[in-house]
Design goal:
Strand order of the largest sheet: 1-2-3-5-4
Largest sheet: 5 strands, mixed, barrel
Strand content: 15-25%
Distance between the termini: 37 Å
Order of helices and strands: EEEEEHHHEEHEHHHH
Helix content: 25-40%
Number of domains: 2
Number of helices: 8
CATH class of the largest domain: Mainly Alpha
CATH superfamily of the largest domain: Recombination protein O, C-terminal domain
Bound molecules: zinc ion
Structural class: alpha+beta
Length: 254
Amino acid sequence: MTTDGLLLRSTPFGEADAVVQLFTREHGRVSALARGARSSKRRFAGALGLLVLSDFELKHRPRADLWSLESALIRRDWTALAGDVVAVAHLSYALEVVRELSPIGIAEPRLLDLLVELHEVMAERGPSPPVLRALELAVLETLGHAPVLDACAACGGELGAGVLFDPGRGGALCAGCAAQSRGIGVRGFAEGARQLLRAARSVERLVDAIAATAAFDDSDRAAARDAMVGMIVAQVGRPLRSVEFIAKLGHRRG
Ligand SMILES: [Zn+2]
């Protein structure tokens, strides 16, 4: 079986091999044994690296948890981005989100398309936080975890004033329902942040999020980012490493 996909993670195995986690079009997230991945640089060439889309030839091994990776060939190459630390950080974050949220062995081709599109946008326009917001929203929606932004996530009523964002309860809350929110990640949700996320959610292509959110200020951008990261952390159940890395890169990078 040959399928295109991206490398999510590679772990050394024995002297010569690696166990790789791949996000494939046909089978979603799978783990495979890549024999010779470490002993021979030519075995998989650059096809088992970051910043490439590859065609993976996978063989199912009876009574084994791991697939066997027979061969891998680069199909698209974005390795020119390797020198852009912010771009690499954004892509690492997107891969981590998909790795943590996608089910094992279930095809989610929309998620692969989104990751490929993110690489494309990054190569053309450079890293952009609004593009990440659009990606987060699309990934959450694909997996059935879209945040509620248009009404109260708890009672379904109008939001009015005093709105909070509670990732554990699924999104925006009216002041009445917000009074019962005590969980981790609960925060104020300014109208601008809510409108920014609604704009980022409605774009057809990720790149359109740049223009769709151009009018929002830094505090709305920061609040929208914190709400989305909170939503993802609530689904994963623990902090994401790549978020801390992006934070270390400084102001306006995430
Ligand atoms: Zn309510």
